[in-house]
Each structure stands twice: as C-alpha cells, then as structure tokens.
Write the structure tokens for this entry.
Amino acid sequence: MANLKTLAEREEKKRKFESGHSLCSGCGLPIAVRTILNSVDGPVVASNATGCLEVATTRFPTSAWNIPWIHNAFENAAATISGVESAYRMLKKKGKTEKEINFVAFAGDGGTYDIGLQSLSGALERGHDFTYVTLDNGAYMNTGIQRSSATPKGASTTTAPAGEERYGKQEKRKNLTEIVAAHGIPYVGQASISNLTDLSNKAEKAFNKNGPTFLNVLSTCQLGWRVPPEKSIEIAQKGVDTCFWPLYEVDEGEYNITYEPKEKLPVEEWLKPQKRFASLFKVANQDVVDEIQNDVDSDWEELKAKSS
C-alpha cells in the first residue's frame, strides 16, 4: 500500500504524466491522474474521453502523457479501452506478446454519468479487464459549465442557473458509484483528491484485480465551483468531512468505509465556500439546505449499514 513518500519515489522513477499542461491552477484533474498512474507498476495504456483533461494535456505538438494514450469521443471511453484490451488478449493467446499490460479509461462526469453510461455499463457486463476512472467535478466544465446528472442539488450552472424563480439545479445528483457497484464487478472505489494515500491504495487495488474495476474521484473545479485555486484541496476535504462525498469501497461485494470523519461536519461547511451554491443561503432557500442535509445524513447511515 502507498504512502506519500512511496508516491513521490514512484513519480521520480517514471513520470507517466508530466507537468506543463494547460489545466487551470487549482484543478483537481492532474492531481488525480498523476496519483492513479503512479499507483500502477509496469506498462499502462489509457483512453481519454473528450473534456478538460484531454484538451489541456494534448495541445499539438505537445503532450503531458508518457504512456500510450488514445483520445476518444465523450461517450465511448469504455468502448475504446474494451477494444484495446480485447486485442491485447488475442495477441497473448496467439503468443505474440508476453507483456503484462494494464488498461485504464479516464472520463469526466458528463462523459460517464450521462453520455457514456451505456458504453460503460456494456463494458462492465462483458467483463473486460480494465479500470475506469470518473473525474467528478460536477458539471460539463469543458463546454461551459452546463449541468450534468452529477451536479449537486442547489448548484448554479449555465443551464440550471440560480435566479429569482429558481435556486439552481432542482434535482439530487445521481449516485453513480452505487449504480456501478450494482453490476457486481470485482472492485469499486470512491475517492477524493484531498486524500491521496486513500486514492492511491484504491487505484492499486483496482489495477490488481482481474476484470473491470471502477474509481469515482471527487475533483475540484475552481472555475465551475467558483472557489479560489489555493482552496482546492481544502474544499474537496470539506466534501469528505461532511459525508457529502464519503470515501468507501466495494471489494468483491463487501462494503468498507475507508475514512470516517472524527467529527461529521454540517453540509453547510461544504456548500458555503462554493459560490455556485450562493443562492441557497438566502432566507427563502433554507429549506433546500435542510433537504440536502437530510439526504446526506440518510445516505451516510445507509452506507454505514452496508459496511457493518
């Protein structure tokens, strides 16, 4: 299992993902990707759905990727890596390679929760041996901060804006981690950029399983969340400590909470620092904050029951 020292040593040994990209300061994406890639030994091949990560790391003629990397459309990261993994298995069967290669797909929440869900579900059902990583920043950030089904209730986006008639998105976010877990795959982990050791350990477990595995990673977007870049990690940790984004895993069907806050914070401490939730803190919308707190409390108690 990794710690911060071993992660740093792996980074120096082989840089699979370089600095020098054009992702925003305070963006959680490079933190997550670097940590995950540093958690796997040996060769790794990646597919990457269209989005901030793809656009900002591959501006011709440069690339931040030091591994074989494939760009694909929003909706087919899972299908792409499934095809590559299938071709690899055939080459091994024919004796044309003996290399042990890992396969990973990276996509945002829009490209997973919404557009790519069918492709992901099919790949999981077929049992391809790969790890799928959702980098969840809660909206279609690359195309203009439009709402996705990962957008939390109450958040203001360009397609669900806060105004005189509405406070922002009206619906509760989709629980994708549980949807994926329902496929009965070997490993599912929910992680955050604020807990790198936890993220790395989950990535290592995922890569070492046979069959499809999944990681859902909370990844701050300073532009869409409207927070200062230097507060990126702190804000993500608030999501964890309020249990809005609990850290847990489903390992061979067994639930395990990997981090339990010493003191569970009220959800307001996660919402208030983000200006996308500013409309919730008007007197008329206090009931919405209460609803969000009730949802968080209910989900947390349900998760603890599954983990007992």
